[in-house]
C-alpha cells in the first residue's frame, strides 16, 4: 500500500509517511488501491456515521469504529510516536510489511505483528524509534537526501572486474561485505587461494587428471585459477547453492574463455566457434546444490571447503567419497571461537575446551586438525597433515586421506588432551592410557603446583598432538610457487619449511644456495617426501618396489617431530632486563645444543625443543640490565647457572604474586 504525492517530484512513499494528521485520517475513507484520490476527499466525510478502519493497523488488531475514536487512535498510537524529517512524519506502522518469524506454542502458531517505521529516504523498515532516528541521522551526515539518494539508486552500478593471478573475475557491488551481497569476494584471502593452488599443483604432479571440487564457489575465482593455470591436469567443479552466484560463476567462466558444463550439457556463448586469437583453456562444471549432497553423490580427488564461518558441518560428507590419497583442504574463518574469544562457541562447534594462551594460533590449528581427524576416522579413514597455517583472517588445514581402519586407528591415537600451566605457560600432552592418574601435575616439567597456592593447571583439548607439516610436500609447493610466479607466498612457504625442520633460516639458506642454483636459486629435493616415492602416477603403490610398512612410516614421523607449540620471548622476558635481538637469541639456543626455528604463527615466537627453564635461563643470560644502558653492544658477563635459575624462579614468583588477586 503506497500513497502518491503530487508535490514531491512524483515519488511514491508509504502511506505511513504524511504531513498532517488530517491526511492520515483521510486514508480511512480510501479503499485499497485507490489512494490516488485521497487528496480529493474533504473533511466533511470524517463526520459520517459510518465506521472506519485504521489504515496502519490490520483488522485483527484494530476493528472499525467511529470517527472520533479513530481520531484518538491515530493521534495517540501513530502520530505521537512518529519521526519527523523535512516536514513529513514517519508514523509507526502495524501492517504486515515486515516479515516476522512465527512462534510455535504447543500445537498453535502465534504470529506476532511487528511494529515498524518506513524510512522516507531509502524505504527501509526499522523497528525501534531510537534506531529510526539514528538511521535518518546517518543519511543526513552522508548528504543523502530524498532526491540525490533515489537518483543514485535508480542507476544500478555495474559489476566491477578484478584481476588476480592472471584471472579476471566479475564481482558485485559491496563484494567485500557478506551481508550486502550473495557472491562474497575477500581480497585479503589471496594468500589462502595461492596456498591452495600450490597444493593442487603439487598433487597434479603425482597423478592426473584430478577431480577437483570448490564446494563454495561464490564468484568462482578459485576454481577459475585451477582450470586456467593447470589446464587438462584437473577437472574442476564449482558449486554454490545461491542462484545469483551460479549465474555470476558462469559469466566469469566466459570472461576467462572457459567452457561451462551445466547438467552434463555444454553451455557456450552465442558463437560456438571461438574468434580468431581466442583460446579455450578448459571446461568447468558448475552445479547448484547443497555441498553435503554433492559430496555424497560424487567422488573427488581434491576437495576444498571454505564456508562462511566453521566447516565442521561439511567434514563428514567430504570424507565420505574422497578417493584414496586424495587431499582435503579446510579453511575456517570463525576466528573468534578458534582464537579463544568465544570459548562457548568453540565448545559447541568443536567439542573443545580452550583458553587464551601465548600459542593460541597453533592451538586453533590443532583444534581444526582434531575435528578433521575425527570426521575421517568415522569414515574408516586416516589423515596425514601436509601443513596447517593460522593467520589473522583464517585457519587453513590441508590433509592427505589414507583409507583403511588401521590408518583411522593410528589417526585417532594422535588426538590427545593438553595440560597447560597458567603460571609459567608450560605445557605437555597427557600420557596415553586409560588409568586414572593420582596427580596429573606430575606430568608437567614445572614445579608451580608445589610452590603456588590452589590449582595451577588446566586441561585443554582434545587436540591434534602429532606433526603439522610435511617437509617434502612443502618443498614441492615451493617449487610450484616459483614455477607459476606466485611471489607473495614464497616467503611463507620457506618459513613453513624451516619450521617443519626446526632449522635456523640463515644456515638453511646458506646450505641450499651452495648446493644448487638450477631451480630458481632454491634446491628442491622431492625424495624427502615419503608419500610421493611410495606411490605411482595413478595414486597406487608401485609393484616393483616393496611398499613401506605404514606403522614404520608413522613411527618415523613421530621421531622426526619436535615438541609442539612455541614460546614468545616477550611473554617470558625478565623484568628490568633488555632482551637480545631475536636472531641473536636463536643463535644462542642453537649453540647450546637445541633445535630452534622461527614460526609463522607468531613473529616473535620461537619453536624449540628446549625446556622452558632452559629457555628462560638462556634468555636471561644474554639479556642486559636496563639501568646499565641496554643499548650498548658490549658482551655482558654471563651469570652462573645457579644465579640464572634463582632469577628465573624469582621472576615466575613475581608474576604469580602480581596476578594472585585475579586468580583468587
From TrEMBL:
Catalytic activity of the protein: guanosine(26) in tRNA + 2 S-adenosyl-L-methionine = N(2)-dimethylguanosine(26) in tRNA + 2 S-adenosyl-L-homocysteine + 2 H(+); guanosine(27) in tRNA(Tyr) + 2 S-adenosyl-L-methionine = N(2)-dimethylguanosine(27) in tRNA(Tyr) + 2 S-adenosyl-L-homocysteine + 2 H(+)
| GO biological process terms held by the UniProt record | tRNA N2-guanine methylation
User: What top-tier enzyme class does this entry carry?
Assistant: transferase
Instruction: Give its E.C. classification number.
Output: 2.1.1.216
Q: Which GO terms describe its cellular component?
A: nucleolus
Localisation per UniProt entry: Nucleus, Nucleolus
A single GO molecular-function term is: zinc ion binding
Q: What is its main location?
A: nucleus
User: Which InterPro entries does this UniProt record tie to the protein?
Assistant: SAM-dependent_MTases_sf, Trm1, tRNA_met_Trm1_C, Znf_C2H2_type
Which protein family is named in the record? Answer: Belongs to the class I-like SAM-binding methyltransferase superfamily. Trm1 family.
The name on file for this protein is tRNA (guanine(26)-N(2))-dimethyltransferase
Organism whose genome encodes this protein: Phocoena sinus (Vaquita)
The gene is: TRMT1L
Amino acid at each position: 500500500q503506497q500513497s502518491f504525492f503530487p508535490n514531491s517530484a512524483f515519488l511514491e512513499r508509504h502511506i505511513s509517511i504524511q504531513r498532517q494528521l488530517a491526511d492520515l485520517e483521510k486514508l480511512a475513507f480510501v479503499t485499497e488501491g485507490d489512494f490516488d484520490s485521497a487528496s480529493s476527499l474533504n473533511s466533511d466525510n470524517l463526520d459520517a456515521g459510518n465506521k472506519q478502519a485504521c489504515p496502519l493497523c490490520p483488522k485483527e488488531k484494530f476493528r472499525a469504529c467511529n470517527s472520533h475514536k479513530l481520531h484518538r487512535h491515530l493521534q495517540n498510537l501513530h502520530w505521537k510516536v512518529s519521526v519527523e524529517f523535512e516536514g513529513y512524519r514517519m508514523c509507526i506502522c502495524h501492517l504486515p510489511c515486515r516479515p516476522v518469524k512465527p512462534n510455535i506454542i504447543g500445537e498453535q502458531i502465534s504470529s506476532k505483528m511487528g511494529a515498524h517505521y518506513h524510512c522516507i529516504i531509502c524505504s527501509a523498515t526499522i523497528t525501534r524509534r531510537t534506531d529510526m532516528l539514528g538511521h535518518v541521522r546517518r543519511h543526513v551526515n552522508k548528504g543523502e537526501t530524498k532526491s540525490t539518494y533515489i537518483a543514485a539508486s535508480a542507476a544500478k552500478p555495474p559489476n566491477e572486474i578484478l584481476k588476480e593471478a592472471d584471472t579476471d573475475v566479475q564481482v558485485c557491488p559491496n563484494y567485500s561485505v557478506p551481508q550486502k551481497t550473495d557472491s562474497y569476494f575477500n581480497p585479503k584471502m589471496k594468500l589462502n587461494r595461492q596456498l591452495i593452488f600450490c597444493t593442487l599443483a603439487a598433487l597434479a604432479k603425482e597423478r592426473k587428471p584430478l577431480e577437483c571440487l570448490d564446494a563454495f564457489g561464490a564468484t568462482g575465482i578459485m576454481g577459475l585459477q585451477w582450470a586456467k593455470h593447470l589446464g587438462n591436469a584437473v577437472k574442476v567443479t564449482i558449486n554454490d547453492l545461491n542462484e545469483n552466484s551460479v549465474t555470476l560463476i558462469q559469466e566469469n567462466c566466459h570472461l576467462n574463455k572457459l567452457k561451462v558444463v551445466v547438467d552434463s550439457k555444454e553451455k557456450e556463448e552465442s558463437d560456438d566457434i571461438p574468434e580468431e586469437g581466442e583460446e579455450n583453456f578448459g571446461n568447468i562444471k558448475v552445479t547448484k546444490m547443497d555441498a553435503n549432497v554433492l559430496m555424497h553423490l560424487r567422488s573427488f580427488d581434491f576437495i576444498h571447503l571454505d564456508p562462511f564461518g566453521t566447516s565442521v558441518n561439511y567434514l563428514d560428507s567430504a570424507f565420505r567419497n574422497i578417493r584414496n590419497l586424495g587431499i582435503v583442504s579446510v579453511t575456517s574463518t570463525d576466528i573468534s571461537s578458534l582464537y579463544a574469544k568465544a570459548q562457548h562457541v568453540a565448545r559447541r562447534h568443536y567439542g573443545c575446551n580452550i583458553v587464551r594462551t601465548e600459542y593460541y594460533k597453533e592451538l586453533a590449528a590443532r583444534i581444526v586438525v582434531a575435528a578433521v581427524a575425527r570426521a575421517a576416522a568415522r569414515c574408516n579413514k586416516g589423515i596425514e597433515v601436509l601443513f596447517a597455517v593460522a593467520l589473522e583472517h583464517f585457519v587453513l588445514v590441508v590433509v592427505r586421506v589414507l583409507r583403511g581402519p588401521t590408518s583411522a586407528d593410528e589417526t585417532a591415537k594422535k588426538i590427545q588432551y593438553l595440560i597447560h600451566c597458567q603460571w609459567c605457560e608450560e605445557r605437555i600432552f597427557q600420557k596415553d592410557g586409560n588409568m586414572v592418574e593420582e596427580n596429573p601435575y606430575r606430568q608437567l616439567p614445572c614445579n608451580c603446583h608445589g610452590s603456588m597456592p590452589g590449582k595451577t593447571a588446566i586441561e585443554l583439548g582434545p587436540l591434534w598432538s602429532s606433526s603439522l607439516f610435511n617437509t617434502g610436500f612443502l618443498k614441492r609447493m615451493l617449487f610450484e610457487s616459483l614455477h607459476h610466479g606466485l611471489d607473495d607466498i614464497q616467503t611463507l612457504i620457506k618459513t613453513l619449511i624451516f619450521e617443519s625442520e626446526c632449522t635456523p633460516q640463515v644456515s638453511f639458506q646458506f646450505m641450499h644456495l651452495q648446493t644448487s642454483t638450477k631451480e630458481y636459486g632454491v634446491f628442491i629435493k622431492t625424495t624427502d617426501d615419503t608419500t610421493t616415492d611410495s606411490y605411482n602416477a595413478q595414486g597406487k603403490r608401485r609393484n616393483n618396489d616393496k611398499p613401506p610398512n605404514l606403522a614404520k612410516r608413522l613411527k618415523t614421523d613421530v621421531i622426526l617431530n619436535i615438541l609442539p607449540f612455541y614460546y614468545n620471548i616477550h611473554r617470558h622476558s625478565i623484568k628490568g632486563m633488555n632482551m637480545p635481538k631475536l636472531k641473536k637469541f636463536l643463535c644462542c639456543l642453537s649453540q647450546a645444543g637445541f633445535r630452534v626455528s622461527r614460526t609463522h604463527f607468531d613473529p616473535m615466537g620461537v619453536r624449540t625443543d628446549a625446556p622452558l627453564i632452559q629457555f628462560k635461563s638462556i634468555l636471561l643470560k644474554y639479556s642486559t640490565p636496563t639501568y646499565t644502558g641496554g643499548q650498548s653492544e658490549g658482551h655482558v658477563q654471563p651469570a652462573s647457572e645457579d644465579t640464572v635459575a634463582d632469577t628465573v624462579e624469582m621472576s615466575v614468583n613475581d608474576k604469580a604474586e602480581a596476578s594472585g588477586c585475579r586468580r583468587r
